[in-house]
Amino acid sequence: MGTVFLWFGVLKFFPAASPAERVAVRAAMKLTFDLLPSDVVLRVLAASEMAIGLGLVTGVLLRVVLVGFFAHMAGVFSALLLLPEEMWQGDAPIPTLEGQYIIKNVVLVAACLVVAADEWGRAAPS
User: Fold this and answer.
1) Is the pTM of this model over 0.85?
2) pLDDT digits (tens, 9 = 90+) for 68-121
3) Contacts by 15-23 with C-beta closer than 8 Å and gap 24+?
4) What is the DSSP string of 59-106?
5) Distance CA 94, CA 100 (A)
6) Max intra-chain CA distance, the chain
7) Which helix (H) or strand (E) covers residue 38, if one does?
8) Element holding 110 (H helix, E strand)
9) pLDDT at residue 53, rounded to an integer
10) What is the distance between the alpha carbons of residues 89 and 69, in angstroms, rounded to a whole number?
11) For this UniProt entry, which segments traverse the membrane (predicted)?
12) How far apart are CA 31 and CA 17, in angstroms?
């Protein structure tokens, strides 16, 4: 999971290398009420994905990383509501390719729920 996040974060630093770049920026812009320029939003998304990826790979500050991961996923899934014309085919609950790209993140959420359950299930050090 960490490697995937790290990889996708790195891709966002290269213009048009990430297939999710446009949707991610548009959703983030709506969430931030267009207060930041799109290039800044893209760099922040890239850096946050890389930080989450590194944290998942190394386990450093894992609880903080998991909170960041779940907050990031809330933002990712918000695109399904914020950009309905891009996420859904007409009025039917049939996702577009971009919508499918967002929905597949359910797998990452499930995997991180397992990591979080293990991490928070550990006894606190004395």
Assistant:
1) yes
2) 999 999 999 999 999 999 999 988 899 999 999 999 999 999 999 999 999 998
3) 19/101, 20/98, 20/101, 23/79, 23/83, 23/86, 23/98, 23/101, 23/102
4) -TTHHHHHHHHHHHHHHHHHHHHH-HHHHBSTTSS-B-HHHHHHHTHH
5) 9
6) 56
7) helix 38-58
8) helix 105-121
9) 98
10) 28
11) 60-83
12) 23
Distances from the Cα of 35 to the Cαs of 28, 31, 38, 40, 47, in angstroms?
10, 9, 9, 10, 18
Is residue 126's pLDDT more than 60?
no
pLDDT digits (tens, 9 = 90+) for 9-39: 999 999 889 888 999 999 999 999 999 999 9
Domain residue limits, the chain: 2-120
Label residue 49 exposed, middle or buried (CB < 10 Å: 0-12, 13-18, 19+): buried
Q: What is the mean pLDDT of residues 47-71?
A: 97
